[in-house]
């Protein structure tokens, strides 16, 4: 997904043993400094909205947290 011709999210595919894990990745609170070391034309919600985004923790099977509530 592009915002102002810069990548903000995409599909992630990872091989685990005999399985594929497929998901999405979204650049949420990355800053310009986070992208300096990478050769990417990328942006984040933080950069575009000029403020940190609070992301509620995601829940996996049986209500277990799968992501940190970082902000």
Question: Could you name the key traits of this structure?
Answer:
71 residues; two-stranded antiparallel sheet; 2 helices; 4 strands; globular
Give a written overview of the molecule.
The protein has helices at residues 32-36, 45-49, and strands spanning 2-3, 6-7, 9-16, 19-26. The radius of gyration is 14 Å and the shape is globular. The model has no long low-confidence stretch (mean pLDDT 80). Helix content is 14%, strand content 28%. The two termini are 23 Å apart. The chain has 71 residues and is an alpha+beta fold. The strands form two sheets. The chain has a two-stranded antiparallel ribbon with strand order 1-2.
The topology string of helices and strands comes to EEEEHH
Helix fraction bin: 10-25%
Shape: globular
Structural class: alpha+beta
Low-confidence stretches: none
* N→C terminal distance: 23 Å
Largest sheet: 2 strands, antiparallel
Radius of gyration: 14 Å
Enumerate how many helices there are, as a single number: 2
User: How many β-strand runs?
Assistant: 4
Strand order in space, largest sheet: 1-2
% residues in beta strands? 25-35%
Mean pLDDT: 80
SSE inventory with pairings:
Blueprint: E1 2-3, E2 6-7, E3 9-16, E4 19-26, H1 32-36, H2 45-49
Antiparallel strand pairs: 1-2, 3-4
Question: In short, what is this structure?
Answer:
The chain has helices spanning 32-36, 45-49; strands spanning 2-3, 6-7, 9-16, 19-26.
